[in-house]
Write a structure and sequence with these properties.
The structure holds two protein chains of two kinds. Chain A is built from twelve helices and no strands. Chain A is an all-alpha fold. Chain A has one domain: ABC transporter involved in vitamin B12 uptake, BtuC. The relative contact order of chain A is 0.18. By secondary structure, chain B is of the alpha/beta class. In chain B, helix 3 packs across helix 4 and helix 3 runs parallel beside helix 5. Chain B starts with 10 loop residues before the first strand and ends with a strand. Classes of the chains: A mainly alpha, B alpha/beta.
Chain lengths: 261, 227
C-alpha cells in the first residue's frame, strides 16, 4: 500500500493536518469559532467556481476564505454578534458563487468535488501549501502561546493588562481562513467543519489541561486519518467522511463514558 | 498650552461622560493618588460597571478623558498597562476552561515577562506566594474544581500578582464568604501606597477601607471624602 505515490501523499497530508488542525480545533472550541470555520469552508465553493472560470482555483479559494474572515470582523459590532456577522459574510460570498456556477454548467462536478474533498487526490502542490500553512500556524502558536491562552480565557482582562487582543483575534481569523482554504481540496467543505470542531471537543472531554489538549487532538486526527486511509485503500471509501465517523464515535465515547474526576 | 503632569496623581478623570449612546454618568471629575481607596456605590443600572469599563479603556468615553500616570488610558503602552489591575465580575469567566490555577496567574505575568520587567526564574515563587496569600495550596488544581467564592479569590490574586499601582475591582466581595471578606479588606489595608477603586453593593464593608466615596444614581453623581 505504501509503495503507491498517492498513498504516500495522502499519508503526508494527514500528518500535516494532524498538526495544523490539531492546533486549530482547540482554539475553535475554546473561542467558539465553529461558525467562522464553517463559513470559510463554505465560501471555498465560490473560490472553486472562480477557479474554473478564471484559473488558479487555489488562489481564489484562499481569497474567498480570507474575505469571509476579514468581512465578518468588520461587520461584527453593535447588535451584530460574532456568529451572525460570519453568516452574513459567508452566505453573501456563497450566494455569489452559486450565481456564478450557472456560467460553468459543464464543469460543475469539479466544483462539487470541493464539497467532499479527495485525500487520495492530493498532489505535491497541495502538500507544499499545507506545509507552509502548518509551519505558519506552528510558529504563531509557539511564539504567542500564552497570549493565545490568555485572550481565549478572558479577553477583557487581557486587554486591560496590555495584550494585543484585537490583533490576535484578527491573526487567528486570517490563519484559520488560510489553513482551511489550502486544505479544503483534501478535506472537503462539508467535512472541514467536523474536523475543526470534533477533535478539540473530544480532547476537552478527556483533559482539564489546555497544554495536553493539543497533543490529544493531534493524536486523534492522525489516528483517525491513518485508519481511514487504510480502509479507503482496501474498500474504496472516501477518507474524510471516514475520519469524521471515527472522530464522532470517539466524541460519543468521551462524552458519555468518560467521567472526569 | 501644555498641562503640567502631577506625578503624585495615579488616575485623573476629567469631565467624563459614559454610556452606550445615551449618557449614564455626566461630567464626572475626580483623581486618585497613591494610597487612595475610592468606593463606587449606587443602584443597579446607574452606570457603575460602564464607568469602570470606560476608565479601563475597554469602551470609549462619550466625552471627557481618563488619564493613568499622566497618559490617556486609550493610548497607554504595555509598560504602563501592567501597572493597572482589574478584577472583573466573576460571571465574565468560564469555570470550565481547561487551565490550572498556576496557568491563570501565569497569563497575567506574560506581558511583564515579555517586557523584561520580571525574571522567568522568579515566576514560580511569585505564583506560589500569591496563591498561598489567597488561600490556595496546590497551583496545579484545575479551575473547574473551584467554587464561585474561590474563583473570586483567584481573580483577585491574578490582579495582585502584577503589583499594580491602581487596582479596579467590580463587585470583588459578591461571592466571598464572610471570613474571607474580612481577610480581603485586611489584605487591601496591608497594601500601603497602592490605590484601589471598588465598585460594591457592600457599603458597610468598603466603608472600612475607602477614603473617598462616589455615589452614582439615576439623578447624577456625588463625590465625598470618607473618614
Amino acid at each position: 500500500m505504501l509503495s503507491y505515490t498517492f498513498v504516500q501523499h495522502a499519508l503526508l497530508e494527514i500528518v500535516l493536518l494532524s498538526i495544523g488542525l490539531g492546533l486549530l480545533t482547540i482554539l475553535v472550541n475554546l473561542r467558539d469559532l465553529g461558525v467562522l470555520g464553517t463559513g470559510i469552508g463554505h465560501a471555498a465553493f465560490t473560490g472553486g467556481v472562480l477557479g474554473v472560470l478564471l484559473g488558479a482555483p487555489w488562489l481564489w479559494t484562499i481569497a474567498t476564505g480570507l474575505l469571509v474572515a476579514l468581512l465578518s470582523s468588520k461587520i461584527e459590532g453593535k447588535r451584530v454578534s460574532s456568529a451572525n456577522s460570519v453568516i452574513v459574510a459567508f452566505t453573501f460570498i456563497l450566494a455569489l458563487g452559486l450565481v456564478l456556477s450557472y456560467f460553468v454548467p459543464g464543469q460543475i462536478s469539479t466544483v462539487m468535488g470541493l464539497l467532499f474533498g479527495s485525500m487520495l487526490g492530493v498532489d505535491i502542490f497541495d502538500i507544499v501549501l499545507t506545509s507552509v500553512a502548518t509551519l505558519l500556524l506552528v510558529i504563531f502558536f509557539v511564539r504567542y502561546y500564552w497570549e493565545i491562552l490568555g485572550t481565549s480565557f478572558d479577553e477583557e482582562y487581557s486587554a486591560v493588562v496590555g495584550m494585543p487582543v484585537k490583533t490576535l483575534r484578527l491573526v487567528i481569523s486570517v490563519l484559520l481562513a488560510f489553513y482551511i482554504t489550502v486544505t479544503i481540496r483534501a478535506v472537503g467543505t462539508l467535512m472541514m467543519e467536523a474536523l475543526l470542531v470534533i477533535p478539540g471537543a473530544v480532547a476537552l472531554q478527556l483533559t482539564d489541561s489546555y497544554h495536553k489538549s493539543w497533543k490529544i487532538s493531534m493524536a486523534l486526527i492522525a489516528g483517525s486519518g491513518v485508519i481511514s486511509l487504510i480502509m479507503a485503500f482496501y474498500w474504496n471509501l472516501p477518507v474524510s467522511p471516514l475520519m469524521v465517523v471515527i472522530l464522532s464515535l470517539s466524541f460519543l465515547i468521551a462524552r458519555f463514558l468518560f467521567k472526569q474526576k | 498650552m501644555s498641562a503640567m503632569v502631577d506625578e503624585s496623581i495615579v488616575l485623573s478623570v476629567e469631565n467624563l461622560s459614559v454610556g452606550y449612546g445615551k449618557p449614564l454618568v455626566n461630567n464626572l471629575r475626580f483623581f486618585i493618588k497613591p494610597g487612595d481607596c475610592l468606593g463606587i456605590v449606587g443602584p443597579n443600572g446607574a452606570g457603575k460597571s460602564t464607568l469602570v469599563r470606560t476608565i479601563l479603556g475597554l469602551i470609549p468615553p462619550l466625552s471627557g478623558s481618563v488619564s493613568f500616570l499622566g497618559e490617556k488610558v486609550e493610548e497607554l503602552g504595555p509598560k504602563k498597562k501592567v501597572k493597572l489591575g482589574y478584577v472583573p465580575q466573576r460571571t465574565t469567566v468560564d469555570l470550565s476552561f481547561p487551565v490550572s490555577l498556576r496557568d491563570v496567574i501565569y497569563m497575567s505575568l506574560v506581558n511583564k515577562l515579555r517586557l523584561g520587567m520580571l525574571m522567568s526564574s522568579s515566576v514560580d515563587d511569585l505564583i506560589q506566594a500569591v496563591l498561598s496569600r489567597f488561600g490556595f495550596n496546590d497551583p496545579s488544581t484545575p479551575l473547574r474544581k473551584l467554587s464561585g467564592g474561590q474563583l473570586q479569590r483567584l481573580l483577585i490574586a491574578r490582579a495582585f500578582v502584577n503589583e499594580p499601582l491602581l487596582t479596579i475591582m467590580d463587585e470583588p466581595t459578591s461571592n466571598l464568604d464572610p471570613a474571607f471578606t474580612d481577610e480581603f479588606y485586611e489584605i487591601l489595608a496591608e497594601e500601603k501606597g497602592k490605590a484601589f477603586i471598588l465598585v460594591s453593593h457592600d457599603v458597610e464593608g468598603i466603608s472600612r477601607i475607602m477614603n473617598k466615596c462616589l455615589t452614582i444614581n439615576f439623578e447624577g453623581w456625588e463625590l465625598r471624602d470618607h473618614a
